[in-house]
Amino acid sequence: MKMFMLKFFCIVALMFISVLVGMQLANDGIHKMKGYDDPNFQNAIALSENGEHVKATFLGNEISSHDIDEKKKKLEEISAFNLFSSMGKKISEGVSTASKKLISLITE
After folding, report:
1. Which of 14, 74, 40, 58 is CA-nearest to residue 66?
2. Rounded CA gap, 13 and 8, in Å?
């Protein structure tokens, strides 16, 4: 079983590295195909750190922490009901109480 897990994780790591190398080769191929540096050609994701501020661009759109805070506030104002979240909380509470009762029965 240990050898199987070792082989499995090695294969997964090899696949992950292969995907990253393939993406880099594709990016280099696009640059070679154009034949020149295009300033409009942007990376998919770019991060730039400016002191205490971090700026991120995703597909040319700038994302800042202020945008994320505003979206979080909007979600809190909406107070959307998530069925799966509430079901998960109830199941976890049920399992917790059941395990506590089972442990108290065993120990007494």
Report:
1. 74
2. 9
Count of structural domains within the chain: 2
- Please give the pLDDT value at position 30: 80
Range of the domain at 106: 43-108
b/e 48-57 (16+ beta carbons within 10 angstroms → b):
eeeeeeeebe
In 18-99, DSSP assigns E strands to 45-50, 53-58, 61-63
Q: How confident is the model at residue 15 (pLDDT cuts 50, 70, 90)?
A: very high
3-state secondary structure 27-46: HHHHHHHHCCCCCCCCCCEE
For residues 71 and 20, state if they share a domain: no
